[in-house]
Amino acid sequence: MRLRSVPLFLVFCATFFLIQPAGAQMRLTYSNFFPPTHVHSKLAERWCKEIEEQTHGEIVFNYFPASTLTRPQQTYIAVAKGVADIGMTAIAYSRGRFPVLEAIDLPMGYTSGVQATAVANQVLERFDPEELHNTEVMYLHAHGPGVIHTRNKPIHSLADLKGLKIRGTGTSGEVIAALGGTPVGQSMAETYQMLQRGVVDGSAHPVEANNGWKLGEVAKYMVQNFSSGYTTTFAVFMNQKRWHQLTPKQQEIFTRINKKYALKHGQVWDEADKKGMAFFLSKGGTVISQTNEESKRWAEKSSVLLENYIQSVAKRGIDGKVVVDFIQARLQQP
């Protein structure tokens, strides 16, 4: 009797383990600097939920918004080292680390978030930058044209801007300097208090931030300097070890959902710009448009950044002109 029961027990055990999932449930951490109320934080959470649903719970997430797991400047390294499994941050917060991607942020005359996001992912696909090879990139997204906002001084000309302290990071800071302002490099999370306390005279940011970060409460003027407007590229990275722990089917699910959400982020940037403008105006903000002549002056002043970029990355063995030309060609396409 006992001898017979052993084989039956072994058969039961083998059957039990065969019907279990191929691997245990994988729990991933996701670090995002956007606050939980921001539309791009909410969209990141939806991305997590959709992957959980599509993998039938094989993949689950612990989501950390508002820089509660990693600081924006440290997110890429934190993901590469496994401190966080996935992270979203702005490449401008790690100046010099992403020389190819930095070309996307240059004042190219972007018209929308959808356009900027499409170009960003085309650059990623075309050049496969070596600077990203320590992680697995999920997707990129980018906002519509960033413009200058000020606390209490209207900006009608370059002369009005000269010497003003304007918050800006990465390319936005360089745009400010090229236009005659004094850039102050701080993250978006610090901008509200800096404007409120008068630490800076203004900020360069997309219109959406007037609502998303409530900057419309502390900025009174917006100059529509679209000709010198920049974008900011945001990247979602995943730790390579964790990526390779996924099954091929799970990787396919991630890839499919990534393409969907890259477009969603671009669309959301544009929707958020509209809400940002409405919020700014509701707080009594004043919008200052530019004449064609003034717009050309600002474009001419900021165009030096393209040549500076090409010369700068050449020292690192990168043909920046090819990257810039690629972006400009894509912007000419309908």
From TrEMBL:
It holds the Pfam family DctP. Coiled coil: none annotated. InterPro entries: DctP_fam, TRAP_DctP_sf. Keywords: Signal. The keyword Signal applies. SUPFAM superfamilies: Periplasmic binding protein-like II. GO terms for biological process: transmembrane transport. It comes from the Bacteria. This is TRAP-type C4-dicarboxylate transport system, substrate-binding protein. It comes from Desulfobacula phenolica.
